[in-house]
Amino acid sequence: MKMNTLEKLAMNNPVRLLIQRHYELPLLEKLGGRLDGMNVLEVGCGRGVGTELLIERLGAAKVHAIDLDESMLKHAHKRLSKYDSTRLKLETGDVTAIDAPDQTYDAVVNFAAIHHVPNWQAAIAEISRVLAPGGRFFFQEVTAQWILRWPYRVLFEHPMENRFSSEEFIAEVENQGIKVSDNWEKRGGGDFVFGVGHRDETSHP
Ligand SMILES: C[S@@+](CC[C@H](N)C(=O)[O-])C[C@H]1O[C@@H](n2cnc3c(N)ncnc32)[C@H](O)[C@@H]1O
To answer: For the chain, which residues score pLDDT lower than 50?
Structure first.
Protein backbone atom coordinates (compact mmCIF):
# COMPACT_ATOMS: atom_id res chain seq x y z
CA MET A 1 0.00 0.00 0.00
CA LYS A 2 1.37 3.42 -1.01
CA MET A 3 1.81 6.20 1.55
CA ASN A 4 -0.79 8.96 1.67
CA THR A 5 0.21 12.60 1.23
CA LEU A 6 0.68 13.26 4.95
CA GLU A 7 2.94 10.25 5.42
CA LYS A 8 4.97 11.32 2.39
CA LEU A 9 5.50 14.68 4.10
CA ALA A 10 6.53 12.85 7.28
CA MET A 11 9.03 10.70 5.36
CA ASN A 12 10.41 13.07 2.74
CA ASN A 13 12.09 15.66 4.92
CA PRO A 14 15.52 16.40 6.45
CA VAL A 15 14.54 15.17 9.94
CA ARG A 16 13.71 11.72 8.60
CA LEU A 17 16.99 11.73 6.68
CA LEU A 18 18.94 12.51 9.86
CA ILE A 19 17.14 9.76 11.80
CA GLN A 20 17.85 7.24 9.08
CA ARG A 21 21.52 8.29 8.76
CA HIS A 22 22.44 8.76 12.43
CA TYR A 23 20.15 6.35 14.29
CA GLU A 24 18.69 3.59 12.12
CA LEU A 25 21.71 2.80 9.95
CA PRO A 26 24.23 2.65 12.85
CA LEU A 27 21.88 0.38 14.79
CA LEU A 28 21.46 -1.97 11.82
CA GLU A 29 25.22 -1.93 11.23
CA LYS A 30 25.81 -2.81 14.89
CA LEU A 31 23.40 -5.75 14.58
CA GLY A 32 24.47 -6.99 11.14
CA GLY A 33 27.83 -5.55 10.09
CA ARG A 34 28.90 -4.00 6.79
CA LEU A 35 28.02 -4.91 3.20
CA ASP A 36 31.39 -4.42 1.52
CA GLY A 37 31.42 -5.72 -2.05
CA MET A 38 27.96 -7.23 -1.75
CA ASN A 39 24.94 -7.48 -4.02
CA VAL A 40 22.05 -5.99 -2.03
CA LEU A 41 18.28 -5.64 -2.51
CA GLU A 42 16.47 -2.78 -0.80
CA VAL A 43 12.69 -3.22 -0.60
CA GLY A 44 10.42 -0.16 -0.39
CA CYS A 45 13.31 2.25 -0.98
CA GLY A 46 11.12 5.37 -1.01
CA ARG A 47 13.13 8.41 -2.00
CA GLY A 48 16.43 6.53 -1.90
CA VAL A 49 18.08 7.84 1.26
CA GLY A 50 18.64 4.29 2.53
CA THR A 51 19.96 3.16 -0.85
CA GLU A 52 22.58 5.90 -0.81
CA LEU A 53 23.60 4.95 2.74
CA LEU A 54 23.95 1.28 1.81
CA ILE A 55 26.41 2.23 -0.94
CA GLU A 56 28.27 5.10 0.76
CA ARG A 57 28.29 4.02 4.40
CA LEU A 58 28.04 0.23 4.36
CA GLY A 59 30.06 -0.35 1.17
CA ALA A 60 27.49 -2.29 -0.93
CA ALA A 61 28.92 -2.98 -4.40
CA LYS A 62 25.53 -3.02 -6.08
CA VAL A 63 22.03 -2.18 -4.88
CA HIS A 64 18.78 -3.22 -6.53
CA ALA A 65 16.19 -0.87 -5.03
CA ILE A 66 12.46 -1.32 -5.57
CA ASP A 67 9.32 0.54 -4.56
CA LEU A 68 5.65 0.25 -5.43
CA ASP A 69 5.18 4.00 -5.80
CA GLU A 70 6.36 5.75 -8.98
CA SER A 71 6.22 9.16 -7.28
CA MET A 72 8.72 8.02 -4.63
CA LEU A 73 10.93 6.51 -7.31
CA LYS A 74 11.07 9.88 -9.08
CA HIS A 75 12.67 11.38 -5.95
CA ALA A 76 14.99 8.37 -5.72
CA HIS A 77 16.08 8.72 -9.35
CA LYS A 78 17.07 12.34 -8.69
CA ARG A 79 18.96 11.55 -5.49
CA LEU A 80 20.76 8.54 -6.97
CA SER A 81 21.52 9.83 -10.48
CA LYS A 82 25.26 9.81 -9.67
CA TYR A 83 25.33 6.00 -9.73
CA ASP A 84 25.54 4.09 -13.00
CA SER A 85 23.96 0.74 -13.75
CA THR A 86 26.94 -1.19 -12.39
CA ARG A 87 26.15 0.16 -8.89
CA LEU A 88 22.40 0.67 -8.95
CA LYS A 89 19.21 -0.76 -10.42
CA LEU A 90 16.20 1.31 -9.39
CA GLU A 91 12.76 0.21 -10.49
CA THR A 92 9.12 -0.25 -9.70
CA GLY A 93 8.60 -3.48 -7.84
CA ASP A 94 6.52 -5.30 -5.26
CA VAL A 95 8.21 -6.99 -2.32
CA THR A 96 5.62 -9.79 -2.50
CA ALA A 97 6.67 -10.62 -6.10
CA ILE A 98 10.38 -9.77 -6.42
CA ASP A 99 11.63 -9.94 -9.99
CA ALA A 100 14.79 -11.99 -9.30
CA PRO A 101 15.77 -15.66 -9.29
CA ASP A 102 16.06 -17.61 -6.05
CA GLN A 103 19.18 -16.94 -3.93
CA THR A 104 20.21 -13.80 -5.84
CA TYR A 105 21.27 -11.41 -3.06
CA ASP A 106 23.92 -11.38 -0.34
CA ALA A 107 21.65 -9.12 1.72
CA VAL A 108 18.13 -7.68 1.71
CA VAL A 109 17.40 -4.42 3.54
CA ASN A 110 13.99 -3.19 4.68
CA PHE A 111 13.70 0.31 6.11
CA ALA A 112 10.07 0.39 7.29
CA ALA A 113 8.34 -0.88 4.15
CA ILE A 114 6.82 -4.21 5.19
CA HIS A 115 4.20 -2.73 7.56
CA HIS A 116 2.69 -1.21 4.38
CA VAL A 117 2.11 -4.66 2.89
CA PRO A 118 -1.30 -6.27 3.57
CA ASN A 119 0.13 -9.81 3.28
CA TRP A 120 3.40 -9.09 5.07
CA GLN A 121 4.08 -12.80 5.55
CA ALA A 122 4.26 -13.14 1.74
CA ALA A 123 6.85 -10.33 1.68
CA ILE A 124 9.06 -12.20 4.13
CA ALA A 125 8.69 -15.44 2.15
CA GLU A 126 9.85 -13.60 -1.00
CA ILE A 127 12.80 -12.05 0.82
CA SER A 128 13.81 -15.48 2.06
CA ARG A 129 13.49 -16.89 -1.48
CA VAL A 130 15.85 -14.32 -3.04
CA LEU A 131 18.46 -14.40 -0.24
CA ALA A 132 21.54 -16.53 -0.87
CA PRO A 133 22.24 -19.19 1.77
CA GLY A 134 23.89 -17.38 4.67
CA GLY A 135 22.70 -14.02 3.28
CA ARG A 136 21.52 -11.37 5.71
CA PHE A 137 18.12 -9.71 6.16
CA PHE A 138 18.40 -6.25 7.77
CA PHE A 139 15.08 -4.88 8.98
CA GLN A 140 13.62 -1.88 10.72
CA GLU A 141 9.87 -2.21 11.15
CA VAL A 142 6.85 -0.49 12.63
CA THR A 143 4.61 -2.61 14.85
CA ALA A 144 0.82 -2.75 15.34
CA GLN A 145 1.27 -0.84 18.60
CA TRP A 146 2.33 2.26 16.63
CA ILE A 147 0.01 1.79 13.64
CA LEU A 148 -3.07 1.44 15.85
CA ARG A 149 -2.46 4.62 17.90
CA TRP A 150 -5.26 7.02 17.11
CA PRO A 151 -3.23 9.94 15.69
CA TYR A 152 -1.53 7.66 13.17
CA ARG A 153 -4.80 5.87 12.39
CA VAL A 154 -6.35 9.24 11.56
CA LEU A 155 -3.43 10.86 9.75
CA PHE A 156 -1.83 8.00 7.84
CA GLU A 157 -3.06 5.10 5.78
CA HIS A 158 -1.85 1.60 6.58
CA PRO A 159 -3.32 -1.86 6.21
CA MET A 160 -5.17 -2.34 9.53
CA GLU A 161 -5.78 -6.08 9.51
CA ASN A 162 -3.11 -8.69 10.11
CA ARG A 163 -0.52 -6.34 11.70
CA PHE A 164 2.32 -7.61 13.86
CA SER A 165 4.09 -7.18 17.18
CA SER A 166 7.90 -7.31 17.34
CA GLU A 167 7.72 -10.92 18.51
CA GLU A 168 5.31 -11.93 15.72
CA PHE A 169 7.55 -10.31 13.12
CA ILE A 170 10.65 -12.13 14.39
CA ALA A 171 8.75 -15.44 14.60
CA GLU A 172 7.65 -15.15 10.96
CA VAL A 173 11.16 -14.25 9.79
CA GLU A 174 12.47 -17.35 11.57
CA ASN A 175 9.59 -19.43 10.21
CA GLN A 176 10.74 -18.49 6.70
CA GLY A 177 14.24 -19.84 7.31
CA ILE A 178 16.00 -16.64 8.39
CA LYS A 179 17.66 -17.09 11.77
CA VAL A 180 17.55 -14.01 13.99
CA SER A 181 18.00 -15.60 17.46
CA ASP A 182 18.44 -12.71 19.90
CA ASN A 183 19.94 -10.39 17.29
CA TRP A 184 17.07 -7.89 17.42
CA GLU A 185 15.92 -4.97 19.54
CA LYS A 186 12.70 -3.19 20.35
CA ARG A 187 12.87 0.58 20.24
CA GLY A 188 10.37 3.31 21.07
CA GLY A 189 8.80 1.20 23.82
CA GLY A 190 7.93 -1.52 21.29
CA ASP A 191 6.67 0.74 18.50
CA PHE A 192 9.66 -0.26 16.37
CA VAL A 193 11.70 -3.41 15.86
CA PHE A 194 15.25 -3.59 14.47
CA GLY A 195 17.17 -6.75 13.67
CA VAL A 196 19.33 -8.79 11.36
CA GLY A 197 18.92 -12.47 10.49
CA HIS A 198 20.90 -14.96 8.41
CA ARG A 199 19.29 -17.10 5.74
CA ASP A 200 19.54 -20.72 6.75
CA GLU A 201 22.27 -22.54 4.78
CA THR A 202 20.45 -25.84 4.74
CA SER A 203 16.70 -25.41 4.53
CA HIS A 204 16.34 -23.65 1.17
CA PRO A 205 13.17 -24.75 -0.62
C1 LIG B 1 7.21 4.25 5.27
S2 LIG B 1 7.86 4.28 3.66
C3 LIG B 1 9.59 3.97 3.90
C4 LIG B 1 10.41 4.52 2.77
C5 LIG B 1 11.93 4.41 2.96
N6 LIG B 1 12.34 3.02 3.08
C7 LIG B 1 12.36 5.18 4.18
O8 LIG B 1 12.70 4.57 5.19
O9 LIG B 1 12.34 6.42 4.11
C10 LIG B 1 7.28 2.75 2.99
C11 LIG B 1 7.65 2.57 1.51
O12 LIG B 1 7.29 1.24 1.11
C13 LIG B 1 6.72 1.31 -0.18
N14 LIG B 1 5.89 0.11 -0.36
C15 LIG B 1 4.67 -0.14 0.14
N16 LIG B 1 4.24 -1.36 -0.24
C17 LIG B 1 5.23 -1.89 -1.00
C18 LIG B 1 5.38 -3.12 -1.70
N19 LIG B 1 4.41 -4.06 -1.68
N20 LIG B 1 6.52 -3.35 -2.38
C21 LIG B 1 7.51 -2.40 -2.42
N22 LIG B 1 7.42 -1.21 -1.79
C23 LIG B 1 6.30 -0.96 -1.09
C24 LIG B 1 5.95 2.62 -0.17
O25 LIG B 1 5.65 3.07 -1.48
C26 LIG B 1 6.90 3.53 0.58
O27 LIG B 1 7.81 4.18 -0.27
So the answer is: none
